[in-house]
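Technical annex B. To support the medicinal chemistry partners, we prepared a structural model of the target in complex with uridine-5'-diphosphate-xylopyranose, based solely on the information shown next.
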Amino acid sequence: MNITVIGTGYVGLVTGACFAEMGNSVVCIDVDPDKVERLQQGHIPIYEPGLDAIVTNNSKAGRLRFSTDLAAAMQQSALYFIAVGTPPDEDGSADLSHVLQVAGQIGQHLSRDAIVVNKSTAPVGTADKVAHVIRQQLQTRGVTDVHFDVVSNPEFLKEGAAIDDFMRPDRIVIGVESNHARQVMAELYQTFSRNHDKVMFMGVRDAELTKYAANAMLATKISFMNEMANLAERMGVDIEQVRKGIGSDSRIGYSFIYPGCGYGGSCFPKDVQALVRMGAEYDYNTSVLNAVEQRNQSQKQRLFEKLQQRFPDLAGKVIAVWGLAFKPGTDDMREASSITLINALAEAGARIQAYDPVAMDEAKKHFPASWFDDGTIRLCAHQYDALENADAMVLVTEWKPFRQPDFNAIGKLLKQPIIIDGRNQYDPHSLKQQGFDYTGIGRDIA
Ligand code: UDX
């Protein structure tokens, strides 16, 4: 099939590359000419395992192209994917301006029957708004003989596993109203759904809410577990035992019940807030989601609070931070717990020695340049360099090289043998035996 993907951000690029990989001919459109040029030269703006090779191979094969010319791309295809950002507005609701702008451009250039697929995470009712904007443009142009469908096809990919998630999805949610759109989408996705039927057709608004509900449910599981962990700390209970004990119940399951220092990333925080706003618009108080959000905000403070318990005055203290990305496998630091921790430490006058396997460049964008100049933060070349003369070490992101470190070396490098483990990676008993003052999340056991 000939496909146009509008937006070369995370979702757009992965979508375009994976459709091309399956033999389709894809043009990815972006308004930023520099970005398009860099993509044409094979420079991928995001860190995502496997994406590089797929983009390069399919570009070489001529199946994947990058352009700023939407009108030209639309001449070549009748299937347009909208994959532009829906950043939070000041009040937390999703900002639809990019999506509707693209809808307007589609309306300006539409000259054949087509299917417009929204892949951006956008509130219930967005497809209707997209259709309305396109219709308005067609009317302005006096075009009456062109038919189009607007489909909702939300994306569930995880950063760091995006290619796999796209190629081997749990499910493919497609909100459609017409039989024609349903047939085209079924044909497009059949190759991703060979052995088991992964495609789920539903109404457009059903699909729109499905995306938010999925993320909100996962965020709820995490916040719930964080609440249990905080309770466990007070009760002298080991949350790890509780996690295993409840995860074995197939109705609960083991996934997304790892307590920690809070969830981050580009989706959970934004989508939970957007759903809360949607609730308000429909005059409904989303009390569960409000609590999920609140718990997460507080949970991000836990690492700092644990340091404060050990150092009532943090001024002049040196704190080693292992991990800056919001989770392993990505350089993305959006809403990362490391930011909350580092900001609080800097505010308290501490100095930070940080290391992350891939997010070091990204880190420079998230803190004031002066902090790097005056030594508030030092980005270290190696994970063990970050520990030198530090008063404590904090694990924020559970990258693999942090999971089984050399505790002998850690003990020697740290000024004080304090380990705060924000992701429950280490065994409290063994670390205590080795002489560490260790605390995890929900594991303050004697
Ligand atoms: C998420 C959804 O998983 C994905 O389906 C959706 O399309 C986008 O949002 P992503 O943000 O890439 O994906 O990361 P994910 O792996 O879901 O982790 C999100 C956050 O939750 C991370 O900060 C992670 O550390 C945290 N987390 C996850 C926990 O604290 N505990 C857990 O048990 C699982």
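Notes passed to the chemistry partners:
The mean pLDDT is 96.
Residues 1 and 24 are 5 Å apart (CA to CA).
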